[in-house]
Amino acid sequence: MFPVHEKQKKSPIEVLPRDEAREHLLTIADIIAKVMDTTIRIPGTSWYIGLDPLLGLIPGIGDVLANLIGTVILGLATRLQLPRVVLARMSLNLLINGTVGAVPIVGDLFSVWFRSHSRNAALLRDAAMKPDRETHTDWFYVGGIIGGTIALLLLMIAFIIWLIYKLWMMVSGG
User: Fold this and answer.
1) Better pLDDT: 123 or 5
2) What is the chain's percent helix, strand, coil content, to nearest 5?
């Protein structure tokens, strides 16, 4: 048997000591997430809504404003020097929320459920407190979103080719 050294006894995840500046940035992210996602309780339910779905009701510019506010959390993550894959995952959360949020009514309901700002604040807090944490789930998430996007794009291209073929057959009498 080999002797076990003190370094080998440590857990693989090192939790950073708390410092005032980091805590301040994390608090800002939590406040933004709360304001954007869960400020107001819907009477008679256990659901909360925030500024995000309310801004989404403004045609054209509402979802853009909500995502711009959400990028503040992304900026805080950059300032805390989080791993790039975590930044990519946070960006994808904003992209998903902004893309689906652009669909009237359905997008606003999606924003109430998806809560991209709260997700990003949680990712920020987790990554900021555990810089050596495993990022396999983050890579899987990013890869899944990219793979799903490519699959949807290929399906849309195939559908358009099929549609053009059918129209051509109708016009040419085939």
Assistant:
1) 123
2) 70, 0, 25
